[in-house]
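Title: [Solved] thioredoxin-dependent peroxiredoxin 3D structure

Original question kept below for reference.
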Amino acid sequence: MAIAIDSPVTDFSAPATGGEFNLAAYKGRQLVIYFYPKDNTPGCTTQGQGFRDSHQAFAAANTVVVGVSRDSLKTHENFKAKQGFAFELISDKDEAVCGLFDVIKLKKLYGKEYLGIDRSTFLIDKDGVLRQEWRGVKVPGHVDEVLAAAQALNKA
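Solution (posted by the thread starter after getting help):
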């Protein structure tokens, strides 16, 4: 069952840079989970750099940022190091986390159809409840919008 706004997010674990990610471990802190198609591609790199550059502001809003794609841990480790990301990246090769958040969509590229990750971001409150979602994300301005929502939620 996919998640819904104002509902608790089902606990999950997944392999990540820095060790196993477990949602329950983040109780008491807000969490931004952003899904992106592929490491080391222009849009995904720009999006990750935006979260990297706003890391201190997210931390000040009691918010942890985590990225998710279907890339391997090895690719994630290289991408994270190359870009200087201060946040973890989840490797979702089996698409279990993508399925929970319903982000796998039919896409078209050069006339060919394929299943891929729809760039999406989710804001989870300190009690593990989904409070906001952004689907079909366009990278420019997105991180600022998510940061403003995290700051407002932290003050609520």
